UniProtKB/TrEMBL annotation:
Family: Belongs to the ABC transporter superfamily.
Record-linked InterPro entries: AAA+_ATPase, ABC_transporter-like_ATP-bd, ABC_transporter-like_CS, BCAA_Transport_ATP-bd_LivF, P-loop_NTPase
Pfam families: ABC_tran
Organism this protein belongs to: Aeromicrobium alkaliterrae
Protein name: ABC transporter ATP-binding protein
Length: 237
């Protein structure tokens, strides 16, 4: 039996006040599923994530566990939607420990302390750097912190905007392995936006390809990974 649909976009169009930059997007993510949204720079990937989290204006429908998802980004976050924006989403002036503490604001005080501890267990490097400011971490460490910060409030789905951006290939591999582990252990659904098609198709169950603001392909990740035409035309690989 397949898992229930958690997030569903239907005929979603969005933009920044001028003409829409993404058009008529149909996309879904089931409970516990890993879905990737691929496309070249400027295709509209970030805009789709911002429309889901309520940071840009959109038309069409976004439904969440069967009900319309509406309201401001903080209200959507309270329903269990996490978002790691492009460029990481850490509070660079605060320490690593403070970032996690702030991320856990929705938990009760005791649970919050336990959650910070358990994320330090998951990412021992972050514990070693607990008192350093986030802005002084390496790119890979910042990405791990951004992940932990989003996950600490136990979201049902996390939107990840280019988690591999600016990371060396080996570090990218580590980040993606951590994503797979977290998904398997906690059942958190992931919607991963990437230009790095190879890494994210290897991680994902299903994939959508965005070209100039439209969904031009979708299917099982292992089918798209073998599609030479797609690779040449849209993924630059
Ligand atoms: N804040 C903004 N204001 C106006 N246009 C924007 C803004 N952000 C992005 N755009 C435009 O929207 C289109 C899609 O951008 P984006 O969603 O960032 O693409 P991607 O994430 O795939 O690189 C681009 O043409 C971009 O110039
Ligand atoms: Mg982007």
């Amino acid at each position: 039996m397949s898992a229930a649909t958690l997030l569903e976009l239907s005929g979603l169009s969005a933009g920044y006040g001028g003409p829409d930059v993404v058009h008529d997007i149909d996309l879904s993510v089931s409970e516990g599923e890993i879905v990737t949204l691929l496309g070249a720079n400027g295709a509209g990937k970030t805009t789709v994530l911002r429309a889901i989290s309520g940071a840009v204006r959109s038309t069409g429908t976004v439904s969440w566990a069967g009900s319309p998802l509406r309201g401001r980004p903080d209200e959507r976050a309270r329903s269990g939607l996490g978002h790691v924006p492009q460029g990481r989403g850490t509070l660079t002036q605060l320490t690593v420990a403070e970032n996690l503490w702030v991320g856990g604001a929705r938990l009760g005080p005791r649970r919050r302390r336990e959650a910070v501890d358990s994320w330090f267990e998951t990412f021992p490097r972050l514990r070693e750097r607990a008192e350093q400011t986030a802005g002084n971490l390496s790119g890979g460490e910042q990405q791990m912190l951004a992940l932990a910060r989003a996950l600490i409030s136990e979201p049902r789905l996390v939107l990840l905007d280019e988690p591999s951006l600016g990371l060396a290939p080996l570090i990218t591999q580590e980040v993606f392995e951590r994503l797979r582990e977290i998904n398997a252990r906690l059942g958190t659904a992931l919607l991963v936006v990437e230009q790095n098609a190879a890494a994210s198709l290897a991680l994902a169950d299903r994939a959508y390809v965005l070209g100039s603001g439209h969904i031009i392909r979708h299917g099982a990740a292992d089918e798209l990974i073998d599609d030479d035409e797609l690779r040449r035309a849209y993924l630059g690989a």
